[in-house]
Design goal:
Shape: globular
Radius of gyration: 25 Å
CATH architecture of the largest domain: 3-Layer(aba) Sandwich
Strand order of the largest sheet: 21-20-26-17-18-25-22-23
CATH superfamily of the largest domain: P-loop containing nucleotide triphosphate hydrolases
Number of strands: 35
Bound molecules: guanosine-5'-triphosphate, magnesium ion
Distance between the termini: 42 Å
Amino acid sequence: MMHFLSLRRNLTLFVLLLQKQQYAIAFTFSPLSSYSYRGTLLLSSSTSSSATTRLHETTTSSEAIKTTTTIATTTTAAPNKEIDRRRNLAIISHPDSGKTTMTEKLLLYGGALQQAGAVRQKAEQRSTQSDFMEMERERGISISSTVMNFDYEGYRLNILDTPGHQDFSEDTYRALAAADNAIMLLDAAKGLETQTRKLFEVCRLRGLPLFTFCNKMDRPALSPYELMDQIQEEFELESYPVLWPIGDGDRFKGVLDRLDNVVHLYQKPVKRGAKAEVIKIPFDQTDKLEELIDDQELFLKLVEDQELLNELIEPLDMDRVLDGEQTPLFFGSAQTNFGVQLFLDKFLIMGTKPTPRKVTTTVNDDNNNNDDDNDDDVEDSSSSSSSRSKNIVSPTYEEFTGFVFKTQANLDPKHRDRLAYVRVVSGMYEKGMKVGHSRSKLGKKYNLAQAQALFGSDRSSIDIAYPGDVIGINNPGMFAIGDTLYTGNDRIAFPGIPSFSPEKFCYIRSPNPSSYKSFRKGMDQLLAEGAVQALRQRNDDGGGPLMLAAVGALQFEVVQARLQNEYKVESSMEPLGYTLARWADGGWDAVDQANADGKLFGIMIVQDRWCRPVLLFRNDWKASSLTEEQKQLQLKPWSQPPDFEQ
Ligand SMILES: Nc1nc2c(ncn2[C@@H]2O[C@H](COP(=O)(O)OP(=O)(O)OP(=O)(O)O)[C@@H](O)[C@H]2O)c(=O)[nH]1
Ligand SMILES: [Mg+2]
């Protein structure tokens, strides 16, 4: 109970922070094919224009955004056709709902894999592309988010498979920062679960259009109506069933595609990891359909359901999907491949292309600060050449901009390299380009010698990348989560990616002095990745005991396992009885004063990596009363790295 409450609290804090950052919620649509439903044109190019009109409204509704500056550039914008064909998708859910399995099947149907691997492998079966860490394979859970880029049917997809476990929520939230669309997987037997609820809140705050896939229909499932009710009641989100299931468990026969009015009946794949055999039949060929379904009860139920849904369900309206009022709903079974390809094909058409992003800071590198008097209003950031306002960067902005949302070492243990995952927001990445860095001194440039397309732990070199892409770049150490990279004269910073407030604390030591150097190297790397946070005693410049802080205890286990596997060092941990951290934004003077007044009795005073004061508490009550009584401490539950290097 305690744990649940503290997780709720953590989420609430995160939500507040997101609200504070006011992420841009603005979308663009590419022209869509015209599905019709009961005479209503649902996904037509008129949807496209209304979506862009709304973008205009969004961008001009805020005073801050009204003032814009068009800047002279020498570089070229990304071609519209490249932006239009990009789709990226984060897969989220409660643990074990099948995200990694779904990702693997999307790769299979997307033609990126010949044979799908399994999360828990049986003899001779290959493992999945996204769970490649040793600990992930051993435990059958995802620990870290993974990116997979591939081309399919003329589209370029970037899929982000995220961990479901609450202890790794920070990593999942970072991946969501890089996504333009999200798919929420539900275990059809369980419906909405704790972690689904939390992740849904984050998607809503980030304004991500949400697709829903009820998975594991090959097992006994809740009724589809009940699943729709849960989504409606808890999320105030109306579902539009795009695929409707025919039976469940052993009697799961297939799905009705309600947009095309075609039934897809599946056979289990003969070969492990291969695609499923499918028979397609138009819904109105009733005699044939009845014969093929070969189950009188299921056939009659399907006919009844189809009529009922057509009568009761509002038409699919992509504007409402963008507004978080409606979710396209799918049913299937990732493990047996049912419904996966249908989802993929529909998503390419319905998903949004790369969206504009809000900028929190811009500084002109030439000290030629932008003059608001010269400003022009943004017309339509998606198509106009004036594609950067002071506060919004559109994919069509001429300069390259992107942000780091994840860093990871030892993706390839042989090379021991460090990679920063960059989401490209605008312009083009070109091999060897020089970029500015949001936290570095003005005018300092870094050479991006070689970027990589990512495919789990596999990589391939690329010379060019476009908005929407997630690329890996070599990280000599200075690129951290939340950093912005850019070309052009204006220094740009996208909103930082906040850390969570830690609730577990321990000391970590190297028991073996001879391996201390490797221990230190491994720890430095894992801290740079944000696998855990580090705290130290005040004024400790690195020689004293190292304290780790995490959202969940599993993060500590991952640190120990990775030190062992990747750096070959033992480590010992000593848990600490603190349960809450507060950053004292009032600074050291305020902390010293409160301490001198005897107000910090029983509270541990430490510093974070930027030497800022942090107080550790044993209970919520003490933290709340101190926050109230000692306002000059300005206690805050999270840390945000400073925007620019001091
Ligand atoms: N019966 C059935 N099992 C499935 C299906 N999809 C996934 N599974 C199984 O469910 C278990 C969890 O699947 P994963 O793909 O690892 O789930 P996940 O959501 O990625 O889990 P985490 O990343 O750890 O949160 C595995 O044993 C899968 O084989 C399905 O459609 N039907
Ligand atoms: Mg997984």
